[in-house]
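note to self: the first set is below, dont mix up w the second
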Amino acid sequence: MTRNDTLSVLLALALLGGCTVGPEYRGASPSALKVPAQFRSAAVVPTAAVDLARWWTGFGDPVLTGLVEQSLAQNLDVDAAGARLRQARASVATARSAQLPTLGASASVGRSIGNSGRSIFDPTTGTTLSTGGDTTVYRAGFDAAYEVDLFGGIRRSVEAARADEGAALANLQSAQQTVASEVGLNYVAARLAQRRLRIARDNLASQDETVQIVGWRVQAGLVSSLDLEQARQLRAQTAATIPALENNYANAANRIAVLLGEAPGAVDAVLAPDSAIPLAPPANDIPGAVIQRRPDVAAAERSLAAETARIGVQQAELYPALRLTGSFAGSDTNVGDVVSRAIGNVLGAVSAPIFQGGRLRAAVEGQRASTDAALANYRQVVLTALEEVENALSALSTSERREREILVAETASRNAVLYARSQYRAGLIDFQTLLDSERSLLSSQDNRATARADRATATVQLYKALGGGWQSAPLPASATRNGTIAVLPDPATRP
C-alpha cells in the first residue's frame, strides 16, 4: 500500500467518527409502565392545597419543622449521598477527557566530558552532534496522541457517565426525602409515647385512689379482700405498661437525634415538654405527577439510561480503532538552536479485533442482559411507588374513620366510669363491674391516642409517597467540596 493509499484509508476511517453504534435510549411511556389515570383511593380523600416541598410545615408544629430542616442540613446519609454525587460528576469529567488528545512535553540537559573531537549521535532526533572538549547537550520534545471515536464508544461512555450522574443526584434527593419522612414518623412516635405515658399515669393515679377506697371498705367489713386484690391487680397491670412506653419514647427520641447527625440524647430537651400529636391536611395527586416527582423513580430511570448507553460502549469494541500519535523533538549544544534542529513525525495506527474467542460478543450480550434487568427494576420501582400511594391513602382514610368511632367510645367509657364509681360507693354494683369500666376507659383513651398517631403517620407516609420533601432541601457541602478531606483524629492521639 502506497503512502497515498494509507492516508486515504485513515481519512475514510476518520470520517466514520460521526457513527455511533448501540441503541438510542427512549424513555418508557406511562402505559408501558402501567401507570393508571388516577388512584383507586383518590375519591375518599379530599384534595388540599399542600406544599409538598415543605410538607412538614403543614402540621403547624414549630418543633417538628425545626427538626426536619436541621436533619436536611446535617444528616450523614445525605452527606454521603452528596459525596457520591460529586464522585459521579468527576466520572463524567474523566469520560469526557477521552474525547480530547493527550499532550506531553519533556526536556533534559546532558554533560559530555573529555570528548574532544568526537561526535555524539542523538537517537531522539536521529542527528549527530559534533562536540569538542566538555560539552553540554540540550534536548526538548513534545508528543501528542488522539484516539478517533470512530464508532461512538467514547461518546456512549460519556452518555453513560452523565446518566450515572443523574442517578446519583436522584439518589441524593431520595435520601433527603427519606430523612425528612423518618424524622416526621419518629416525631409522631415520640409524641404518641408521651401521650400514652400521660394516659397511663393519670389512670394509675385514679387506680391508686380506687385501691385506697377499697382498702377502707375492706377494713369496714363492707367488702371482701377479693375486691382489694382485684384493684391491686389492675393497678399493677397499668404500672407495668409505663416502662415499655418510656422505652418507646427513648427509642424515637434517639432515632431523631441520629437522623440529625447527633448522638442519642441530643434532642431530649427539645422534646421534653409534652405536646399533642400534630395533624396536617391530606393531599391528593394524579399518578403521572407522582412518577415524575419521585426521586427513586428518576434514579431507576437514569440507571436504565446508563445501562442502555453501555451497550454501545461494548459494541464499539467489535469494530476497528484508529489512534493518531505525533512527536516533535530536537537537541543541540546550544539551547537556542534546539527548536530549529527539531524534527517531527505523525503516525496513524489502526487496530481491529479478528479473533477473541467470542469474548467481545459475550460482553455485548451481558450488557444487554444488564439493561433488561435495569428496565425490570425501573418498572418495579414505578409499581412500588403507586402501591405506596394507594396504601397511604387507604391508611389515612381508615385511620380517620377509626378515630371518629374511638372518640365516641372514649366519651362513653369516661361516663361509665363516673357512674360505676358512684354506684360502687353506694353498694349498687359489684367491684368487678367497676374494674371492667376502668379497663374500658384506659383502653379507649389509649386507642384514641394511637388512632390519632396512625392518622398523622399515614399523612407523613402519603407526603413521602407523593414525592415531597426533597425540593427545598439544601445541597450538602459534600457535593461541592473541593480539595478538602475530612479525617477524624486517631483516638490514640486525642488529648
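second set (the one i keep forgetting abt)
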Amino acid sequence: MRKFWSLFVICGALTAAYIYAQPARAEDKKEAPKAEAKADTKEAPEFIDFDKAKNGNVKFPHKVHAEVAGNCDVCHGGETPLFKKEKSEGMKMKDMYEGKGCGSCHDGKKKQGDKVIFAAKGGCMKCHKKEKK
C-alpha cells in the first residue's frame, strides 16, 4: 500500500509540473478577462484609521484590500464609486447592512476565491476594536 501511495503522489506531482510547464493555448486565453492592472499599492496607505466609530475604532487594512481587488477602480471607480479617494468621516452601519460601502462585499454571500467574505452584520468585532484602558 505504501509503494502504491508513493507512486500515486509522484505521478500527481509530475502531472501537475507538466501541466504548468505547458505554454498557454489559444482556447485557454478566451476566459473572462481578469483585472490586468494591479493596484498601485505604493500609493495606497497600509491602513486607514477611523477613530470616531461608536463601537470602537476601525483600522481598515487598505493595502491588503487593494492587493486583493487588484485594481483601484473596483472600489474607487465608475460613475458611483463605493468610496471617494480621500478619507471620509466614516460610514453608518445601516448603510453597510443595506449593501453600501464595505457592505457591498461584506454581505456574507460574496466570495474571495473559495472563501465566503464575512458579513458586516454580526461580525462587528472583526473591524471594531475597543481601546484597552
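remember for set 2: Residues 68 and 112 are 8 Å apart (CA to CA).
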